[in-house]
Design a protein that fits this description.
By secondary structure, this protein is of the alpha/beta class. Helix content is 23%, strand content 25%. The chain has a single domain, classed as Dinitrogenase iron-molybdenum cofactor biosynthesis domain (Nucleotidyltransferase, domain 5, 2-Layer Sandwich). Strands 1, 2, 3, 4, 5 and 6 form a six-stranded mixed β-sheet that branches. Helix 1 (45-54) runs parallel beside helix 2 (67-76). The longest helix is centred in the middle third of the chain and has 10 residues, at 45-54. It starts with a strand and ends in a 32-residue tail after the last helix.
Length: 128
Amino acid sequence: MKIAVTYENEQVFQHFGHTEQFKIYEVQNDEIVNMQIVNTNGSGHGALASFLKENNVDVLICGGIGGGAQNALNDAGIKWFGGVKGDCNQAVISYLVGKLQYNPDVKCDHHDHEHGDGVHICGEHGCK
């Protein structure tokens, strides 16, 4: 099994669609056997979901994630856990022992509205 975590400075990065790196863990018999940090080669939730699928990722652990990204991951057959904060390694260990604290209703709410001029710039608002 492969588990990817949105990554920045050993912490779970909080905006899936802007993830520049993933930390990918290879797991056998509920033990981490390998881990590596990989660059994403793209931006935006569609490209990132495709990147994860091409790298045979089974599970994603992340912070904020919008509805479009959730749908793209579901379509790719990747199980995801959003709303996670803290250390990447600890998040994976918690997942493996069934104690990962996540929010099944997490979403980036700033994708659901526009600003005065009808333009939205990601990064201006936080993700829940």
